[in-house]
């Protein structure tokens, strides 16, 4: 497994979670990284990510102001801090390169937000 996401769980609306993604050094050194999610019955969508070549971050409109992506290069780890969670944030969350590559999809981590 090249990318392993963790940190999901069940939380009440308004709560917070932090997701971690650990990967191999060659993935992190050669790619910008991002987070994606897939809710039940919906297509996988972009959530947050770094742009290639720098520290600029992009967010889906639905999570702006609530989610924060960060990284520690020395640990080959990218994080997703999620605050003010809503029931509509319920999904399996994945990390991948940005843009994503098929060979990097892992199992993801499930986040469930109860109302």
Explain this structure.
It is a single chain. This protein is globular. It is mostly beta strands. The chain has one helix at 25-30; strands at residues 3-6, 9-12, 17-23, 33-38, 45-50, 57-59, 67-72, 77-82, 91-97, 109-114. The strands form 2 sheets. It has a 6-stranded mixed β-sheet with strand order 2-10-9-4-5-6, with no helix packed on it. Strands 1-3-8-7 form a 4-stranded antiparallel β-sheet. The N and C termini lie far apart (34 Å). The longest helix is centred in the first third of the chain and has 6 residues, at 25-30. It has 1 helix and 10 strands. The protein is 5% helix and 48% strand.
SSE arrangement:
Elements: E1 3-6, E2 9-12, E3 17-23, H1 25-30, E4 33-38, E5 45-50, E6 57-59, E7 67-72, E8 77-82, E9 91-97, E10 109-114
Parallel strand pairs: 2-10
Antiparallel strand pairs: 1-3, 3-8, 4-5, 4-9, 5-6, 7-8, 9-10
Strand order of the largest sheet: 2-10-9-4-5-6
Name the overall outline: globular
Number of strands: 10
Separation of termini?
34 Å
Output mean pLDDT: 94
Which range does the strand content fall in? over 45%
Order of helices and strands: EEEHEEEEEEE
Helix content: under 10%
Number of helices: 1
Major sheet attributes: 6 strands, mixed
Which structural category fits the helices and strands?
mainly beta
Mind telling me the C-alpha Rg? 13 Å
Given as residue ranges, the uncertain stretches (5+ residues, pLDDT < 50) are none
């Amino acid at each position: 497994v090249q990318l392993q996401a963790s940190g999901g769980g069940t939380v009440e609306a308004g709560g917070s979670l932090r997701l971690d993604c650990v990967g191999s050094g060659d993935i992190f050194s050669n790619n910008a990284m991002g987070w994606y999610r897939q809710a039940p019955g919906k297509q996988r969508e972009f959530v947050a990510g770094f742009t290639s070549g720098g520290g600029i971050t992009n967010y889906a409109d639905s999570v702006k102001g609530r989610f924060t992506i960060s990284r520690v290069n020395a640990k080959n780890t990218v994080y997703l801090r999620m605050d003010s969670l809503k029931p509509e944030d319920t999904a399996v969350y994945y990390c991948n390169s940005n843009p994503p590559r098929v060979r990097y999809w892992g199992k993801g981590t499930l986040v469930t937000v109860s109302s």
